[in-house]
Design brief:
By secondary structure, the chain is of the alpha+beta class. Helix content is 38%, strand content 19%.
Amino acid sequence: DGDDDGDGDGARGGGYLDYSAAMAKEFVEVEVPALLFPRRETLLPGSRLTLHLYEARFLALLEDAMKRTGGLIAQLTFLPSESSEEEGLRVNASATLARIETVTREAVGARVDVVGEARVKLEGIAGREPFITGVFTHVPQMGDAGTYVPSDAELAQVKEVTDYIEGAVRDVLLLSARLLGDAPSDTDVESAESDAKDEDADDENTVNEFDDASFEGIWTHKEVGDLRSAMAWVDAPSVTVERIEAEVTMEDADWTTVPEGFAHSPLTRAERLSFAVLQVAPASTPTDLQKLIACRAVAMSTDHGLMDRLRLGVSVLDDQLQTLRAKVALKSLGNSINS
């Protein structure tokens, strides 16, 4: 049974969609193979995940996606039962369209690297064997045709918040470089992080990104790489379920080629940024982790608009900066004592 997070008929303005207009258009329904995860493991647009597939049904799903949908799959999430007497899973109607980037065949199964691309709405289940195939439609966002058109004042507000977020991300990257010893205090962020992606490639991102045991309050190259790749995704071409117009193999699909002169509109870019910044926090505690999980759930819900997600990003980044500044200060104090 689908548990819809709402159709967003709340207050207008401030970055909310006008769903009465946006949802009036007919959306293309597309069948996409789907994987089911607990809600706490939601893959947001812009985030990356490594899957280790070895069961026959999941390998069949992989082959179907590579042959039919150009390597696009969907991530469905389910909620825990509200009572011990409740039967079955409550599946969220709001799901994530994900793109397979690489497939590495192993002695048993395959390692599959995926990136979240867009929110989609689960309209129904087309099949359950040997794997789940869902029927999905595009979730409209600010910047799409037929959605709410903000006033100049609202556009200025969006720009102010997005400028703040991008500045905060630069500060997070610079502070993390200092904490890791990758750069002296006056080193530019970009040069400080030039090797982070290569080092991140050697790290294993398991399916369970939210294993409490992995949160020891340490900011590593992996998290740096995740944040940097998510920020790069912001300016990449949009990959939506509506682009699956016919069956296409993963080899023939061309989802990410950047046309000459390509650039997102300010609203579309702000939408993508609002998801990209909700990465696993540096120096995370279990409490920080639970807050991030809650923020991601809000971000996926259509009950909340663009400004809600941007404000969530500001909150997450402010918490990260506070923690990082404290840890950098302690590290500097320790170095001073040792010297």
